[in-house]
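Field reference: "sequence" (input) and "structure" (output). Example, RNA-directed DNA polymerase-like protein:
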Amino acid sequence: MISAMQLDKSRVQEEPPSMEILLGALEKPGETVPKGTLCVPEKCHGVMPSSWPKSSLMRRRTDHGVESPSEAKTHAKNAYRMAPSELAKLRKPSKMLLNT
């Protein structure tokens, strides 16, 4: 028997992520939760609360992000400057490729 459990984001924004159990994991067709899963709350009784507080905050959509100020402008000049002789060496092969 193959069994798998997947933590899936809920389809509705207000609902927390839900645990889904594949039907192939069930021992009997009428069983909703495998027997091995039912004994987990008994073993870890003191770890998880019996009910969630109603005032718990939902997770924000963006955990982190970078905001740039509206006045920020891109640089007009190249960030890396080269000596004219180096630049000429690089331009020569590129001109040859463009002309062919």
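Residues 84-99 form the longest helix (16 residues).
DSSP finds two helices and two strands in the chain.
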